[in-house]
Amino acid sequence: MSAIQVTGLTKRYGELTAVDDVTLSVGEGEFVGVLGPNGAGKTTLLEMVEGLRRPDGGQVEVLGEAVWPRNPRLQPRIGVQLQASSFFERLTAREQIRTFASLYGVGGAIADEWLERVGLTDKADARVEDLSGGQAQRLSIACALVHDPELVFLDEPTSALDPQARRNLWDLLSSLNDTGRTVVLTTHYMDEAEVLCDRVAVMDHGRILQVDSPAALVRGLDAPARITVAPGSLGAEEAAAIPGVAEASEGVDGLVLVTREPGAVLGVLAAGDHLAGVSVQTGTLEDVFLALTGREYRA
Known about the structure:
This protein is 32% helix and 28% strand. It is of the alpha/beta class.
């Protein structure tokens, strides 16, 4: 059964079509990422799926229910962390999350547990306006999850977090998904999508360009591998003569060999005792993203 079924979804603002005839299905217990450059329509798409914004066309069903007009039966079953956090003024972090919890009939002890899970126990008595951007982001995520929703929407949840906090949040989100919850997130971090997502939808100009697992998208790109050999281990002319090497050039960390036959090239390097310090870089989700959406700057 689908947790989310989107069919022909469209949203216009004057002459701008922010979301253009999007169709997408998300299965129960699936972790799906929506990727795209700024202005691609990701946030507008999520807001319509969440029931926060009225579509101009198309249909959305979430957990078997229509989301528009606003459906109060869905609200206890979903959790939403918006791109911009809004809190009640002058409340402490503990008061904030306990207030959110009380709206769903959840006790204060569980709210306090969520503060601990996102690493904010030592900031429990700090007012929300005194929290750093990363701390406020973690509090926002805890407020979205405190009522144990079946379906979670996260809009760029790690954008203000330091690397350690990002990794800790990845563990938390993975554990939520492992217990059967459905998670949908938008992110600009390709490594985040590769680690967390079962599938990703790459979006641009209001349309979904491709949907598949990160590994399948990378395989479909057919990008060449780059093999870096330690400096002084091999000459450029000798490397260029290896069967399967399309290009050999000096890089920052050594000699870089570009090839679509990495296995064969590594076999030759091994036979010549040139494997010490070798590194291999294949195609990544970032390569897929750039191939689909281009490299030009976006506002």
